[in-house]
Amino acid sequence: LRKRGGKVDIPEKPLPLDEFHQRCSEAWLTWSPAGFGWECIRHAEAPAAGSVPIINSPTVNRHMPLRHGEHCFFYNPDEEDGLERTVLEALSDKQHLVHMAEAAQAHVMHHHTLNALCNHVVDMAFDDKES
């Protein structure tokens, strides 16, 4: 990506949280591969900071997920150039990225804050509907 003129920010060591958020806020895109599970906090932190996450394609259903092309971009890690192709395609329309970042931030603030997730758990726990 650097060879194609892209600015790539890869820290050499884990960043303090405030610096991570600052770097996300300055980036069009934030690479956010799944960590120990699909509900990785990075998937929400990047949009909260104003960046559009690039996420490897999920294989499970998730709660109120970010949607490809609307809030984030998914890529297939099994494809040799999947990540690079997805990033280059995403960067080709910066105006769309601005709208996606705004939509992703609103989605995260509505569905993925601690308060929103706690309310969801309580609602599910006290739902009197049979499964």
Question: Could you explain the architecture of this structure?
Answer:
With 131 residues, the chain is mainly alpha-helical. 44% of the residues lie in helices and 8% in strands. It has a 3-stranded parallel sheet with strand order 1-2-3, with helices on both faces. Strand 1, helix 2 (42-49) and strand 2 form a beta-alpha-beta unit. Helix 1 packs across helix 2 (42-49) and helix 2 crosses helix 4.
Give me a quick take on this structure:
The chain has 131 residues and is mainly alpha-helical.
Strand order of the largest sheet: 1-2-3
Q: Helicity level, as a percent range?
A: 40-55%
Structural class: mainly alpha
How many individual β-strands?
3
- Reading the helices and strands in chain order gives HEHEEHHH
Our count of helices gives: 5
How far is the N terminus from the C terminus? 48 Å
Low-pLDDT stretches are none
**Rg computed from alpha carbons, rounded to a whole number of angstroms:** 16 Å
Please summarize the sheet with the most strands.
3 strands, parallel
Residue-averaged pLDDT: 89
Beta-strand portion reads 5-15%
The 3D shape can be described as globular
Topology:
Blueprint lengths: L16 H9 L3 E3 L10 H8 L2 E5 L16 E3 L6 H10 L2 H18 L2 H12 L6
Parallel strand pairs: 1-2, 2-3
Tags for this model:
single chain; 131 residues; mainly alpha; three-stranded parallel beta sheet; 5 helices
